[in-house]
Design brief:
Largest sheet: none
Shape: rod-shaped
Oligomer: single chain
Radius of gyration: 33 Å
Number of strands: 0
Number of helices: 2
Structural class: mainly alpha
Length: 77
């Protein structure tokens, strides 16, 4: 009976060790994936901000051009 209990306990311990090892491996692989894409968020943010700045400048220039055209049509005398 004691041998059977020891066998069950050993099997449970082995299953627990395997689960812990698998969880540790998953965490390590997730950390490795995060490290591989570490600079991407910053690069995406930088490119998005640059695109926003470019669009803002283009919109401002377009509005200045339209305002100038509207002003010139008012002063037709």
């Amino acid at each position: 009976m004691t041998a059977m209990f020891a066998s069950v306990q050993t099997a449970e311990e082995e299953a627990l060790k395997a689960a812990i090892k698998q969880k540790a491996d998953n965490i390590q692989s997730r950390n490795a994936e995060d490290a591989a894409f570490e600079g991407c968020v910053t690069d995406d943010l930088s490119s998005t901000m640059a695109e926003l700045l470019t669009n803002s400048k283009q919109t401002a220039q377009h509005r200045r051009d339209m305002l100038q055209q509207d002003y010139e049509t008012l002063n037709t005398d």
